Amino acid sequence: MANHGHAISDEALNQHLEFTFTTTFMRNRQQLVIATLLCPGFQAQAENIPQSYDTSFQLYQEDSDRIKVESYYARGQVDINDSTSFRFQWLRDAISGASPTGVLPGAAGGGQPFLSSLHDVRYGILGALSEQFGDHRVELEMSRSTEHDYASNGFALSDTLELNQKNTTLAYGLNYLHDTVDVPRHPSELKESFDLFTGVSQILDKDTIISANLTVGYAHGYLNDPYKVVQRDETVSIPDGSGGFITFPVTNIYPENRPDKRLREVLQFEGKHYFQQADGAADAVLRFSHDDYGILSETAELEWRQNLGEHFQAIPFFRYYHQSAADFYMTTLDSLAIGTPPSSPNGSSPNYSADYRLSSFDTLGVGLRLRYQFTDNFSATAAYERYTMTGSGSDAAPEQAYTEANIWTIGLNAKF
Q1: Does residue 192 carry a pLDDT above 90?
Q2: Strand 312-323 relative to strand 168-181: parallel, antiparallel, unpaired?
Q3: Is residue 143 exposed (0-12), middle (13-18) or buried (19+ Cβ within 10 Å)?
Q4: According to the CATH classification, is domain 10-415 in 3.10.150.10?
Q5: Using one digit for the tens of pLDDT, what is the confidence trace for 200-231?
Q6: In the 8-state DSSP scheme, what is residue 329?
Q7: How far is CA 267 from CA 78, 270, 285, in A?
Q8: How far apart are CA 70 and CA 119, in angstroms?
């Protein structure tokens, strides 16, 4: 998803997409181990499955019909032989509704409303080929996604190394994205992103596995959201026809100006434990993030996977997220010593943005996932999550900028 006015909050999107690169390669190699820990009865079946496919639909609906996102996914993995496998993903996101522009509620805004309507469709495709070389598994991934005003092309290369009789897994790799942004009334802009990651997972016993991952990301180029603005109260003077002037106040709006470089670090810890007596498993995640925008964030996630009989599994989950505001977040330019702001900002100082996604806020997600195993080969999942977002402290955006949402997901899975 492009990071502009056609998007839901960065944090809401991240809950579903971010850190996929960091954890995907680790989890691919851990898949059979974790399946054994969480669903011991499936061990024999999982070890003999050469291919799997799943499809899902997700509806993200903010309250008051503000933002609606309908997402369709199709994924698959085929084990070509004992050492080679191929996986793919196709997605379609349809986005509609309205998003805050950065104008304060009730302000004149130069004719710009507090909310701006939007409509867009994103298509994405991903393919990855992996090969086993002794204790190493190398994977090359290629991806592309497009919207009407945004295109992204990327590749990722990773290696996982199994040690200690496959009880320890080391992973490391890199990811590169080359994005093109169509800026209204201006030439297209470019953005490049690089991510390096490393991680380790350790099986402590037959029921417990822990992992730690570190990602360092760097982006440069056009990092603005072309649909976000910042307002400033000004005075306009016009001739009165008799040699004097008439002055009156106006509220003008200007495009935001974020830095053209961003360095980010993400550290994640995860632990899974299967409780035999309860026939259930706990999965806990702690994530810490920092960037040179000045944003610090913490995430805590907890889910309980409860087996109910041989075919049914209920998974309640909880997620809390907090972030501080960017150093250059401000609701107006009134207190910033600057001349007339440029109509096409280039990232040079001073920087400023009224995007609520760069403010200080908290989010809470609480939900339930259900999984039913029809046969050895087919299963279905359904999930509901209630998502809330609120401002935090003096660097919060106006209350009306934050949102609450319902998230529904259904899916089908086949393994052969």
Answers
A1: yes
A2: unpaired
A3: middle
A4: no
A5: 999 999 999 999 999 999 999 999 999 999 99
A6: B
A7: 31, 10, 11
A8: 12
